[in-house]
Amino acid sequence: MNLGFYYHIPAVLSDQGIKTPAYLGVFLDALAQEVDLLTLFMHLSRNPNDPNASYSLKSRNIHFVSLGQKTPAWDRFIRPGRTLKKIESEIKKCDLVLVRAPSPLSPNFQKKFGKTSKISYLVVGDYIDDSKNLDQPFIKKLVIQLLSVRNDKQLTNALKRSTTLVNSAKLQEKYSKVVRDLHLIKTTTLTSNDFFQRDDTCQRNDIKILYTGSFCLSKGVMDLINAVAIICQDRKSLSLHFVGWETLPKRPYVEIMKNRITELGLDNIVYFHGFKSVGRELNDMYRMADIYVLPSYQEGFPRTIWEAMANSLPVIATRVGSIPHYLQDRVNAILIEPRNPNQIVNAIREMINNEELRRSIISSAFELVQENTLEIQTRKLVKIITEEF
Prior knowledge:
Layout: E1 2-6, E2 12-14, E3 17-20, H1 22-32, E4 37-44, E5 55-56, E6 62-69, H2 73-78, H3 80-84, H4 88-91, E7 96-101, H5 107-113, E8 118-123, H6 127-132, H7 138-159, E9 163-166, H8 169-175, E10 182-184, E11 207-215, H9 221-231, E12 238-246, H10 253-263, E13 270-272, H11 280-288, E14 291-294, H12 303-310, E15 315-318, H13 323-326, E16 334-336, H14 341-353, H15 355-369, H16 374-385
Parallel strand pairs: 1-4, 1-7, 4-6, 7-8, 8-9, 9-10, 11-12, 11-14, 12-13, 14-15, 15-16
Antiparallel strand pairs: 2-3, 3-5
Helix pairs in contact: 1-16, 5-7, 9-14
């Protein structure tokens, strides 16, 4: 079977082959193992040394079809036909096409190719929700929100005629009344090599708090910084570690974070480790930490929670998106409300001081994550989209 795949994240073509962000690359390699040929329809990065494209695809049964250099989002929103025309002949060679959404182009695959090709969708987010917490000037934010509403309507119409997979209970609820062929799956980068079992953490004097992910307003990282400042008033042996990347390089949120850290006198206990590749580099960060905190204002179900749990790291997370659907408070995590530094403070203190609860959370979470490996979930995905093939 020749499976086509589209996502708007750009790739880099180099002497090492096709390079993508690590989270996407490991998924594509796993997907390639389930089909005869995987045809990638992808944009090219404008930067041939794009630091985000850190992973070289390993599978030999991957055929790359370029959509040219990635154009601005508004261009793909308004003039999708110009880009899709480039790949029409290659689309016809595919038995199935899986489109990852949302993205400016994604709704147009069903509209343009749906009559002659079987199109399926993997929906991993919600543009309307995402646009509510953008750190952008008012006019630009308003334009993005208007385009997001338009794109969401177009995507919903496309999903009505497609096999659709979603990665969160919130998305499942959103589309359940209008999409007939709807399936809930879990998206993860975990392989069988990523598991690390331990009975407990917080055994050292210096408690290490870890956050991994992007740095922006909607991730709630400022709440975590403010919470750590409160804890340090009565506990000096604690450090905060950030692993991740900027979402808007032209509006660096890290500078805002560092200014706040300096204001609070935390420069000596807060560390920025930069971007770490999925696999050994990232696992080493989880394994050196004692507690993982995700203070987001919105999420689907973040891969980082699975990663932390697979490395026996107790999780504190906000009740947003599908997090409360998959996790139980005080069973396999401590769940808190978003935008509430005081709840972060209380949760961290309890995780440090309550050994019985902490050990129970680590054990239950490690058991839960066993079924969420990349191999298992990719096999499930392919089985769903090929059922009628």
